[in-house]
């Protein structure tokens, strides 16, 4: 008796002075701490109990050593929680470090940035464990937690903020618990989850969000697992979901998962009741597929009804998954294989059998999906109406053929390159861009007809849409700019009719067009580098006005177009006045003809301007003047009018052009007689023209 007293005194001295290390680490009363390790087992617990001390919670922070060795925490009967935190020196947790702790319900190892190694079976035989957290550590290998063997229901596992943790190997969770488990695996560096990673577990909820490098879920990732009921892959880099193993997913969260451009496989997601996705067109596709599926399975489900349980989704999942834990689970019943997904009606009874909740409600709950279709992305094909589909083909073929002809003739012409010809060449090129843009849109529309929303994101965020959008803006603006330049040149030529030396020379024209190219290239590029964007609508036009910069961009385009239109109008009025001036040399009776022609030009210009202005105004001020569906009519029918009309109005219908064309044809061996006749005519008219300056207006400026 007497001899044991100094021992106890020694122990208390040790406790009060020896165990308090300089770093601030406090040794728990039921443990014994040494310079390089800690020991907490039934022996140390027993001696602490003799002093009337009993800890249910071990809180270890700022550990002063780098290893938690084997059997450090063993056979403790009273301890329910162990927390190890804020320990920068801790590097290793050895095999069987936490062994056989029958009362332990929670264990958390957090904020130990140097912790690299967690030994095999480090967490062994923890039957009451309900919560486990390994967060914000330096581990690179997935910790072995397969010998936890918890018997608790509703196990929660947190493995978060481990930035160096890159993979989840096969069978990583086998043996954690036989019951349902919630896995929060967010904010890790996980890149890849292997086949059979969840083998042998029942997953209630699997949160993989914020694993920003997570690109691959292998096809058999969920093989051998039950669930998950809730799957959260928000803010990951996943490009697609596995086609198998998602049969029991009721709630899918995939917000800010921008790489997930292809539609989640609905065939595999047939339990899906709630989806919160990144792209609204995916919702379009899911909802429409779901409608078809429900009505095919049972017509009584056509009338979507409210779901019986309006509580939060995870509770609902618990209810459904947990409730059916004893019965064979739905996903084990192979009645919805990909082949007979929609046809086997007789198997439908099984659903009610396994889902008592649904049985009670008697109806299929409606699928909820966000984000819903918005003004920019209505659930429809690119060409919303079928007449547009026809029109868009007609117009693009006309534009491409007309402008190619003009380019071909001008390039092969043996005549001297004059300023008007030079400008015409640019105009045709710009209009050809619009034609190609329309051709691209029309082709994609034809290929995705009837199910565009399934492909919407792949198209809109892909390179095709960027190229098309660039062509539309670049071509549209270059066309406007060139038209403006052509008109100015004509006006300049007419007002300086008598002073040949003051006319525009080719080098000046080249400079002006070079500036135009730079401006238009810039305008086309801006949406590609983040000012507005081409990805917003199916037509690939820059309709994104979320930022003030994007709004300014749209307003500048608007001002550019309106400015050009005003210049064209003013020039024509001035030309008309000049021509009608009695003092103007060589005034003739062709005035009305010229006036008519100008009216046509201004009118087509205006028609072409109208939709752009509509959009720009509507977009710039965020006032929906017109829906996207209706805007397509304007865009398809009016936007390219100039591109179709320009080659005819400015080139093909002019005498100079026809002369070139006949020369080309005669060179190719046909229409020889016509060409020579024309050459005669052209020659004589040329003579006449020299005396008639008004013909400048008709763009027959052959000096
Ligand atoms: C501590 O636990 C071990 C293994 O469970 C057991 O053999 C031993 O008797 C226990 N010691 C005390 C003092 O309870
Ligand atoms: C899946 O787990 C079971 C036991 O739970 C095991 O027998 C099987 O080998 C595992 N499959 C793979 C591919 O690891
Ligand atoms: C669905 O609703 C419509 C009208 O609300 C009703 O006429 C029809 O009978 C309903 N169908 C079923 C199968 O309940």
UniProtKB/TrEMBL annotation:
Q: GO biological process: what's one of them? A: phospholipase C-activating G protein-coupled receptor signaling pathway
Signal peptide range equals 1-24
Q: How does it sit in the membrane?
A: Multi-pass membrane protein
Entry's transmembrane regions: 390-411, 423-446, 466-488, 509-529, 549-579, 600-621, 633-653
Q: Which GO terms describe its molecular function?
A: G protein-coupled peptide receptor activity; luteinizing hormone receptor activity; thyroid-stimulating hormone receptor activity
Query: Has the keyword Nucleus been applied to this entry?
Result: no
Look up the record and report any one GO term of the cellular component aspect. Answer: basolateral plasma membrane
Where's it found, cell-wise?
A: Basolateral cell membrane; Cell membrane
Top-rank taxon: Eukaryota
Q: Which Pfam families match?
A: 7tm_1 (PF00001), LRR_5 (PF13306)
Task: Cite the InterPro entries for this sequence.
Answer: GPCR_Rhodpsn, GPCR_Rhodpsn_7TM, Gphrmn_rcpt_fam, LRR_5, LRR_dom_sf, TSH_rcpt
Q: What is its main location?
A: membrane
Q: Where is the G-protein coupled receptors family 1 profile domain?
A: 402-650
Which keywords accompany this UniProt record? Cell membrane, Disulfide bond, G-protein coupled receptor, Leucine-rich repeat, Membrane, Receptor, Repeat, Signal, Transducer, Transmembrane, Transmembrane helix
The record's section on CDD domains has: 7tmA_Glyco_hormone_R (cd15136)
Instruction: Spell out the family assignment given in the record's similarity comment.
Output: Belongs to the G-protein coupled receptor 1 family. FSH/LSH/TSH subfamily.
Q: What does this protein do?
A: Receptor for the thyroid-stimulating hormone (TSH) or thyrotropin. Also acts as a receptor for the heterodimeric glycoprotein hormone (GPHA2:GPHB5) or thyrostimulin. The activity of this receptor is mediated by G proteins which activate adenylate cyclase. Plays a central role in controlling thyroid cell metabolism.
Q: What is the protein named?
A: Thyrotropin receptor
């Amino acid at each position: 008796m007497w001899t044991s007293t100094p021992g106890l005194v020694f122990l208390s001295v040790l406790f009060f002075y020896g165990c308090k290390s300089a770093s601030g680490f406090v040794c728990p009363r039921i443990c014994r701490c040494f310079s390089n390790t800690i020991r907490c087992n039934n022996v140390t617990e027993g001696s602490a109990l003799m002093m009337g001390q009993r800890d249910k919670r071990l809180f270890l922070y700022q550990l002063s050593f780098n290893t938690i060795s084997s059997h450090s925490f063993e056979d403790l009967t009273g301890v329910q929680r162990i927390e190890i935190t804020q320990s920068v020196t801790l590097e290793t947790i050895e095999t069987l470090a936490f062994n056989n702790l029958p009362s332990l319900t929670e264990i958390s190892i957090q904020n130990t940035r140097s912790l690299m190694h967690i030994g095999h079976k480090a967490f062994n035989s923890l039957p009451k464990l309900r919560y486990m957290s390994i967060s914000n550590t330096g581990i690179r290998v997935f910790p072995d937690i397969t010998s936890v063997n918890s018997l608790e229901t509703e196990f929660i596992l947190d493995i978060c903020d481990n930035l160096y943790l890159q993979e989840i190997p096969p069978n990583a969770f086998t043996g954690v618990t036989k019951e349902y488990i919630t896995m929060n695996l967010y904010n890790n560096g996980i890149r890849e989850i292997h086949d059979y990673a969840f083998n042998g577990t029942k997953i209630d909820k699997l949160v993989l969000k914020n694993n920003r490098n997570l690109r691959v879920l292998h096809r058999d990732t969920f093989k051998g697992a039950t669930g998950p009921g809730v799957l959260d892959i928000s803010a990951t880099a996943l490009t697609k979901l596995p086609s198998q193993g998602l049969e029991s997913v009721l709630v899918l969260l995939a917000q800010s998962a921008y790489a997930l451009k292809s539609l989640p496989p609905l065939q595999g997601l047939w339990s899906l009741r709630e989806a919160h996705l990144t792209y609204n067109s995916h919702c379009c596709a899911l909802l429409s597929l779901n409608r078809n599926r429900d009505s095919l399975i049972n017509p009584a489900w056509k009338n979507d009804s409210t779901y019986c349980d309006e509580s939060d989704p995870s509770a609902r999942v618990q209810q459904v998954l947990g409730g059916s834990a004893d019965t064979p689970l739905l996903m084990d019943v192979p009645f919805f294989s990909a082949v007979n997904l929609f046809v086997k009606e007789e198997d439908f009874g099984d659903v009610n059998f396994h889902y008592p909740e649904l049985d009670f409600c008697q109806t299929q709950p409606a699928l909820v999906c966000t984000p819903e279709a918005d003004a920019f992305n209505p659930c429809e094909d690119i060409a919303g109406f079928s007449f547009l589909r026809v029109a868009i083909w007609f117009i693009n073929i006309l534009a491409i053929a007309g402008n190619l002809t003009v380019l071909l003739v001008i390039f092969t012409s043996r005549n001297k390159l004059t300023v008007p010809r030079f400008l015409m060449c640019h105009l045709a090129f710009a209009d050809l861009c619009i034609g190609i843009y329309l051709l691209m849109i029309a082709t994609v529309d034809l290929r995705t007809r009837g199910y565009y929303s399934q492909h919407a994101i792949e198209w809109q965020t892909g390179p095709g849409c960027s190229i098309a959008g660039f062509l539309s803006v670049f071509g549209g603006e270059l066309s406007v700019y060139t038209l403006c330049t052509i008109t100015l040149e004509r006006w300049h030529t007419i007002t300086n009719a008598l002073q040949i030396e003051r006319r525009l020379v080719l080098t000046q024209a080249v400079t002006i067009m070079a500036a135009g190219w730079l401006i238009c290239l810039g305008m086309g590029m801006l949406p590609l580098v983040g000012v507005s964007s081409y990805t917003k609508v199916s037509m690939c036009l820059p309709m994104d006005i979320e930022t003030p910069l994007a709004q300014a961009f749209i307003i500048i385009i608007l001002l550019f177009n309106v400015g050009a239109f005003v210049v064209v109008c003013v020039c024509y009025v001035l030309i008309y006045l000049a021509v009608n001036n009695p003092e103007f040399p060589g005034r003739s009776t062709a005035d009305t003809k010229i006036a008519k022609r100008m009216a046509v030009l201004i009118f087509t210009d205006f028609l072409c301007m109208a939709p752009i202005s509509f959009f720009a105004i509507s977009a710039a001020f965020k006032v929906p003047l017109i829906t996207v569906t209706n805007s397509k009519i304007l865009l398809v029918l009016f936007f390219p009018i100039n591109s179709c009309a320009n080659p005819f109005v400015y080139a093909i219908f002019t005498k100079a052009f026809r002369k070139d064309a006949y020369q080309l044809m005669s060179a190719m061996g046909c229409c020889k007689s016509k060409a020579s006749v024309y050459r005669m005519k052209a020659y004589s008219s040329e003579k006449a023209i020299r005396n008639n300056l008004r013909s400048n207006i008709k763009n027959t400026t052959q000096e």
